[in-house]
Specification:
Elements (H helix, E strand, L loop, with lengths): L2 H18 L4 H12 L2 H13 L13 H17 L9 H17 L1 H10 L10
Helix pairs in contact: 1-2, 4-5, 5-6
Length: 128
């Protein structure tokens, strides 16, 4: 497939997923710009787009996009426990936010790896 058509497919798919996730075109365009600056993360993203499964070859500090999604699921459960989650589960949002987080991790891995190591999911201070 010619490169221009491929770029259009990626952009249109991202717009569709972003819309499903409740995100606007501006968010999608920003995500695409950041993906274009990371060949490794873009490869993971496009693999998912093409196969609807995760490649899992690239990691930041040992964390793949699947690890990030699991970490986010722990946050989701914690937010439910605290009554902070005000919408139904949205797999497209979880997917996009995992890639958004991975891009941020690539820029500042220590900050995110520290958070990952300290977060306790639903066992937040004062729960019991």
């Amino acid at each position: 497939m010619p490169k221009k058509n491929r770029e259009n497919d990626i952009r249109e798919w991202t717009y569709m997923i972003a819309n499903n996730a409740g995100k606007d075109k501006e968010f999608a365009d920003e995500l695409l710009n950041r993906l274009n600056s990371s060949e490794d993360i873009m490869k993971e993203y496009v693999y998912y787009m093409d196969n609807r499964s995760f490649l899992g070859e690239y990691s930041v500090g040992g964390m793949t996009v699947v690890d990030i999604m699991i970490w986010q699921m722990d946050h989701f459960k914690s937010d439910l426990d605290r009554g902070l989650y005000d919408m139904q589960s949205n797999p497209d949002k979880m997917f996009l936010m995992a890639f958004d987080t991975m891009l941020k991790m690539e820029e500042s891995p220590d900050e995110f790896l520290r958070q990952y190591g300290q977060d306790t999911g639903t066992d937040y201070p004062g729960k019991y």
